[in-house]
Fold this protein.
Amino acid sequence: MPTNQRSERSEIRCRETQHGEVQPQTKQQIRTAVRASRAARSAAARQQTRDQLTAQLISLSVQRNAKAVSCYFPTPNEPDTTGFTAWARTNSIDVFLPVARKDRNLDWARLSEAGTAGGLHGIQEPVGERLPAQILGQLDLLIIPACAVDEQGMRLGWGLGYYDRLLATLDTLPPVFAVIHDDELLAHIPADTHDIPVHGVITPTQTRLFSNYAG
């Protein structure tokens, strides 16, 4: 089967999953479908998504009067948050980005005029002082990546466990919002005991707070 047909079928499968018509049985099936769907998006679609996500993230930050947030720089196929991080810095909001460690934990660094450099996985990371994860407990909002999220707030990552370990170690947990595409909000994701739900989700068309969080 040609590659573009496989990608189209994976994207359809992911969209059907959102409405509960076809539910992949394993985490890996979901990851495979989402990975193919993201890779198939056109440059125009990616730009439109970036602009829409920027608007949603700005609106959420303003609504919560956020002065300090965590965010992430995307891999090539991830939902693009760079429009938001640029706006945040222009508006004097401190942005803390992850710094990957070889032990699959995360340090954090504040985005500044010092710029960024390629990190462990080739993702841009801030140049500057490395801070422990507990710094996040002092922030107003945590914005994190995800492969998919379900209607109960269960987040699916890519299998390395960086964010599950992070969220489990924080003594104080600010509101946590995962950023995904609309068709990656699924009816159900299989959960293990170590999986940590998020409080809300941000897509190009909506910001939703789940019932597991009353803040």
Q: What stands out?
A: The radius of gyration is 17 Å. Residues 1-22 have pLDDT under 50 and may be disordered. The first helix runs from residue 3 to 18. Helices lie at 3-18, 27-39, 43-63, 82-90, 162-169.
